[in-house]
Design goal:
mainly alpha
Length: 388
C-alpha cells in the first residue's frame, strides 16, 4: 500500500477517535445530571480516564514495540467502543465510571497511531510534520465533534454515546481491513515489570537522551492544561462571554490550529528553523501568549490566544517528533510515556490552576507562562532528532 494511503488511514483513525471525544462534550454534563449527580462527577469522570491513561499508555506503547502496532491499535479501538456503549447503557453512576475505566485501560489509540506515523516517516522533518498532523486532527475533531454532539443530544442524552460507540466499532473494522503493520515486532519477552506503569517512566527518565525531553514535555503540558482548564471561566468572568460566544471562540482556535499544522509547520517552521531554535522560539511565544492573556483587554487577550495556539501546536509536533525518533526500537514505549506524562499534567494542571485562580483570575496564565519559561533550561541538554 502506498505511504499516502497508509497515512490517510492512520489520520482517519485518529480523527474518528477525537471526534468521538468532541461529540460527548456538550451532552456529558446533562447526562450525568440525569442520574442526580453533582457537577463534580463530570470532572471526576475525566480524571478517572486521565489516571487510567497514565497507567496504560506506556504499557500499550511497549507492547506495540514487541508485538506490532496493528493489533494493539485495533484492541484499543474496540475497548473504546465497549467503554462508550457501557457508558450509554449505564443505569447508575457506578456504571458510568466502569465505562470510563474500560476506555482508559486501553487508551492506546493516539500513542499507537503516532508510532505508526513515525514508522512510515523517512526523515526527521517528515516525522515532526506527521506528529503535527495528529495535532491537526485534534483541531478538526474538536471543531466538528461538539456540533454533532449538540445536534444528536436533541434526540436524547444517550444518543451521542451510542453514536460514538458505533463510530469506534466502525473505526476498528476499517483498521482491521485496511491498515497494514508498519513495525517489525521485536518479540521481546513480556515481563511483569512492564505491568508497573512507573517502570518505563523511570527507565525513560534514567536515559540521558530522554530525561530532559520528558522533563520539558511535562512542564509544557502543565502550562497547556492550566490555560485550557481555566479558559472558559476566565473569559466568562472578565469579558462576560456567553456559552455560545465561548463555543465560537473555541471553534476559531481550532481553525487556527488546523492552519498552523497543515500549512505553517511544513512550509515555514520545519523548513527554516532547527528543532532547538524552533523550540526556544515557541516556548518564548507561548509564554508571551500567557502573559498577554492575563491582560484584561480583549484585543491583547486575542493576540495572546493566537500566540499560544501557534506555539503549542508547533511544539507538539517538534517535541513529539524528537520523542519518536530517539530510539526506533522503543518508539511505542517512549510515545506511551509521553502520553502518560501528558495525562499526569492533566491532573496537576487543573489543581494548580484552581488554587491560584481563587487568588486572582489572571494568576493561572502568569503561572503557566513562568513554568514554560523555566522549562527552557532543559533545551540545552536535549538530543534533537526532528527537523534540521
Amino acid at each position: 500500500m502506498k505511504k499516502t494511503k497508509i497515512k490517510f488511514l492512520i489520520l482517519l483513525t485518529v480523527f474518528l477517535d477525537i471526534i468521538g471525544l468532541g461529540i460527548i462534550i456538550p451532552v456529558l454534563p446533562f447526562y450525568v445530571q440525569s442520574f442526580g449527580a453533582h457537577d463534580i462527577v463530570v470532572t471526576l469522570l475525566f480524571t478517572v480516564y486521565a489516571l487510567l491513561s497514565f497507567f496504560s499508555a506506556p504499557l500499550l506503547g511497549s507492547l506495540s514495540d514487541s508485538y506490532g502496532r496493528r493489533p494493539i491499535l485495533i484492541i484499543s479501538i474496540i475497548s473504546s467502543a465497549i467503554g462508550w456503549f457501557v457508558f450509554g447503557f449505564a443505569g447508575s453512576i457506578a456504571v458510568l465510571f466502569i465505562g470510563r475505566i474500560i476506555d482508559g485501560i486501553a487508551a492506546g489509540n493516539i500513542t499507537t497511531a503516532q508510532s505508526l506515523l513515525a514508522d512510515i516517516s523517512e526523515t526527521p522533518t517528515e516525522r515532526s510534520a506527521n506528529m503535527g498532523l495528529v495535532g491537526a486532527m485534534f483541531g478538526i475533531g474538536f471543531i466538528i465533534g461538539p456540533v454533532i454532539g449538540g445536534y444528536l443530544g436533541g434526540f436524547g442524552t444517550t444518543v451521542p454515546f451510542y453514536f460514538v460507540g458505533t463510530v469506534s466499532a466502525i473505526n476498528a473494522v476499517l483498521a482491521y481491513l485496511w491498515l497494514p503493520e508498519t513495525h517489525t515486532p521485536t518479540r521481546l519477552a513480556f515481563t511483569w515489570k512492564k505491568m508497573n506503569p512507573f517502570s518505563p517512566i523511570i527507565d525513560g527518565f534514567r536515559t540521558d537522551t530522554m530525561r530532559s525531553l520528558f522533563g520539558l514535555w511535562f512542564l509544557f503540558g502543565v502550562g497547556i492544561v492550566i490555560q485550557q482548564s481555566i479558559f472558559a471561566l476566565y473569559v466568562a468572568r472578565v469579558f462576560h462571554m456567553t456559552a455560545q460566544n465561548i463555543g465560537l471562540f473555541f471553534g476559531l482556535v481550532g481553525i487556527l490550529l488546523l492552519i498552523n499544522q497543515m500549512v505553517f509547520m511544513k512550509r515555514i517552521w520545519l523548513r527554516y528553523f532547527s528543532s532547538r531554535i524552533l523550540t526556544i522560539m515557541m516556548l518564548v511565544l507561548f509564554s508571551i501568549g500567557m502573559f498577554a492573556m492575563a491582560t484584561p483587554i480583549l484585543t491583547v487577550f486575542i493576540i495572546g490566544v493566537i500566540c499560544a495556539t501557534l506555539s503549542q501546536g508547533t511544539l507538539r509536533g517538534v517535541l513529539g517528533g524528537s520523542i519518536a525518533g530517539n530510539n526506533p526500537d522503543k518508539r511505542g514505549e517512549y510515545l506511551g510515556i509521553s502520553n502518560a506524562i501528558m495525562s499526569l499534567s492533566m491532573v496537576v494542571g487543573p489543581l494548580l490552576a484552581t488554587a491560584v485562580y481563587g487568588y486572582h483570575a489572571t494568576m493561572p496564565f502568569i503561572i503557566a507562562g513562568i513554568i514554560v519559561l523555566v522549562s527552557m533550561v532543559t533545551v540545552r541538554s536535549i538530543k534533537w532528532t526532528s527537523a534540521s
